[in-house]
């Protein structure tokens, strides 16, 4: 089989994950970014498609393939075999795994009235079967994106940030996300840090209506020695980790900062961490999930 790359840096994106987590939207975004997207592809055909590219004249450096459970749960073990073959033939691949909370997936299927591709006795059982089948692939994915709290536009921004041509010029992309523990920690976080030890502006009547993006709240949260030491240590930890993540081959790292509600302390700290890393020349995107 001839899988000689068309260019010097072939790269194939594999889009997979839980049914209902946003695969169709992800495929549309990649098409907008110039990728040739093949949807619902049986994994055993991946290397055959690449071989056919020599005739079809599709640039492999802009090729994406979507694989999901419509071809059966055995498809995911076949996908892992195909990824090993791609590596053997010198074709780099990146796996985008889309996930969401079970209750969110149930709601989405109920809203669309579409059947789940797996035939469990109930929708919840079908989701559970799929999650079990995907557990190993999820753990080895290059990009894990939790769409539970993302709308279509936010998912588009996330994927565009990862796969836009501009991103190709950046060695590593860092996302700092604030959240509230009472809403659950982000599934796609690489690091989760808890700032509930800091004084809570929620108990100050004049600060309660504000958020951590407002200067009075930020000043209140950052006023203590503990807050300053936490910032210094966290920024130092991230800068220590960056070259090691690069050596591992990571391209995208999410740091999640959590407080109780995700409105005051975590927001102020995330903003400050983002600003400090930016000042040090690190490319950072700051997001606030729960405000």
Give an overview of the whole structure.
The chain has 291 residues and is an alpha/beta fold. The chain has two domains: 11-169, Rossmann fold (3-Layer(aba) Sandwich), CATH 3.40.50; 173-288, no CATH class. It is 42% helix and 18% strand. It contains nine helices and nine strands. The strands form two sheets. Strands 2-3-1-4-5 form a five-stranded parallel beta sheet, with helices on both faces. Helix 4 packs across helix 5 (123-140). It is globular. The N and C termini lie far apart (52 Å). Residues 1-9 and 165-170 have low confidence and may be disordered.
Please outline what is shown here.
By secondary structure, the chain is an alpha/beta fold. 42% of the residues lie in helices and 18% in strands.
Fold topology:
Layout: E1 11-17, H1 23-32, E2 36-38, H2 46-56, E3 63-66, H3 74-88, E4 92-99, H4 102-112, H5 123-140, E5 143-146, H6 152-163, E6 173-180, E7 191-194, H7 215-221, H8 225-248, E8 252-259, H9 265-279, E9 284-288
Helix pairs in contact: 1-6, 4-5, 8-9
What are the defining features of this structure?
single chain; 291 residues; alpha/beta; Rossmann fold; 2 domains; five-stranded parallel sheet; four-stranded parallel sheet; 9 helices; 42% helix; 18% strand; globular; disordered N terminus
Please give the domain count.
2
| Name of the CATH first level of the largest domain | Alpha Beta
Q: Structural class of the helix and strand makeup? A: alpha/beta
Mean pLDDT equals: 83
Stated plainly, the CATH topology of the largest domain is called Rossmann fold
Helix content: 40-55%
Give unreliable regions as ranges.
Answer: 1-9, 165-170
**Elements, N to C (H/E):** EHEHEHEHHEHEEHHEHE
Q: What would you call the quaternary organization? A: single chain
User: Biggest sheet: strands side by side, in what order?
Assistant: 2-3-1-4-5
Biggest sheet overview? 5 strands, parallel
Shape: globular
CATH homology superfamily name of the largest domain:
P-loop containing nucleotide triphosphate hydrolases
Distance between the termini: 52 Å
């Amino acid at each position: 089989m001839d899988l000689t790359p068309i260019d010097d840096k072939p790269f194939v994106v594999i889009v997979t994950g839980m049914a209902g987590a946003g695969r169709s939207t992800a495929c549309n975004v990649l098409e907008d970014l110039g990728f040739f997207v093949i949807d619902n592809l049986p994994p055993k055909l991946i290397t055959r498609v690449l071989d056919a590219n020599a005739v079809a004249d599709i640039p492999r450096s802009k090729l994406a393939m979507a694989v999901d459970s419509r071809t059966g749960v055995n498809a995911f073990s076949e996908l892992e075999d195909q990824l090993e073959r791609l590596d053997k033939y010198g074709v780099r691949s990146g796996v985008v795994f889309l996930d969401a909370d079970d209750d969110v997936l149930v709601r989405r299927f109920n809203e669309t009235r579409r059947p789940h591709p797996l035939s469990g006795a109930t929708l919840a059982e079908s989701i559970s079967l799929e999650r079990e089948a995907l557990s190993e692939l999820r753990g080895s994915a290059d990009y894990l994106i939790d769409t539970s709290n993302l709308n279509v536009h936010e998912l588009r921004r996330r994927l565009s940030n990862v796969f836009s041509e501009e991103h190709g010029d950046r060695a590593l992309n860092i996302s700092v996300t604030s959240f509230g523990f009472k809403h659950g920690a982000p599934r796609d976080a690489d690091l989760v840090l808890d700032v509930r030890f800091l004084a809570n502006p929620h108990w100050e009547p004049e600060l309660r209506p504000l958020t951590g993006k407002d200067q009075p709240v930020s000043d209140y949260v950052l006023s203590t020695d503990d807050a300053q030491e936490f910032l210094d240590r966290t920024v130092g930890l991230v800068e220590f980790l960056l070259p090691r993540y690069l050596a591992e081959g990571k391209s995208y790292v999410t740091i999640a900062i959590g407080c109780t509600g995700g409105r005051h302390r975590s927001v102020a700290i995330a903003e400050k961490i983002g600003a400090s890393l930016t000042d040090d020349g690190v490319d950072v995107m700051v997001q606030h999930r729960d405000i």
